[in-house]
Design a protein that fits this description.
- The model has no long low-confidence stretch (mean pLDDT about 85).
- Strand 2, helix 3 and strand 3 form a beta-alpha-beta unit.
- This protein has about 350 residues and is an alpha/beta fold.
- The strands form 2 sheets. Strands 2-3-4-1-7 form a 5-stranded parallel sheet, with helices on both faces.
- It contains 16 helices and 7 strands.
- It is elongated, with a radius of gyration of 25 Å.
- Helix 12 packs across helix 14.
- About 60% of the residues lie in helices and about 10% in strands.
- It has 3 domains: about 140 residues, 3-Layer(aba) Sandwich (Rossmann fold); about 55 residues, Orthogonal Bundle (Helicase, Ruva Protein, domain 3); about 130 residues, Up-down Bundle (Zinc Finger, Delta Prime, domain 3).
Length: about 350
Amino acid sequence: MPQEQYKKLAEGGCPVFYFYSTEPYLVRQEAAAACAALLAGESETTVLDEAAPPLEAIVMAAGTISFFGTKRLIEIPNLEPAAYSDKDLDEFLDILSSAENAAFVLSSTVKTEWGKPVIGKRMQRLIEHCRKIGFVKELSKPTGVQLEQLLIDRAARQGTNLPQAVVQNLIETCGDDPFLLENEVDKLCAVSGYQTVSQAMVAQVCTRALEADVFDMIRLVTIKNSTGACLLLQRLLRQGNEPVNISGALIGSYVDMYRVKLGQASKHTYTAVHKDYGYKGSPYRLKHSLDAAGRYTLPQLETCIQILEEADKSLKGSPLMPATVLETALCQLAAAGRRI
């Protein structure tokens, strides 16, 4: 939300701004924008960083008359409504409603289950109350086209052209964490001399996500280059990547391949699969999964997933060296992909 809109809300006397998200950096970023808008009126700030600040401290901060006659700004950046009892939550809501000389900026980070935010009863009560008397915003992690546009806009604000094909490659290379990607975009803008970012620059300066390297490994397995796949595995292990993380990335990639292959058999596109399974990342990952899955049958992919499941069990409970377990699995995957 543009800071100008927060400024208008502040000037209109909005008493509460409440932000919540599954992504901590999103609430920090948005709360900072709201605080900046409120501070433009020369408010004085009190930060209470406990999960459930004592009600006495909130009352004292909200009721204090400013020496300069300005409003008090009270920021609670780590608020957990569930940490209050029902009685204390009632009192907290009363404080929000009755404070005459203060404005509140509240932030909560929400846990997830099965990819969905978990909002308890007390938090829901707080949301409903803040929505009645002030401003509430749930911040969702940008994905797909939205994430691409966010990065293109960030580069444009620095006078740099970031082509769509390049930004797609950037996401595939570095993963879909917006906070990390923004740092990579800033780096690319500087490398390009604030002109135009190229594919070569992404390969040259950007930090590769483990998933990108693992997918390169799968490409080598798919073309039956077990030696190349094992060499790449050894490099990843030397770089300090945990074997179970490599195994997990391999399993995730083969599951993606199986899903898009199954979707294709039912005349579902990779974008439909992305939506149906509630993926949070870029749909282009599934596009590449579909390309890789073209060399396999569904039974072969089932066999590959079973191989990786056994390897994962061995990594967690076998005396064998992790490198040996993973190298064996890569060779078995190459064999499983051979056409009968």
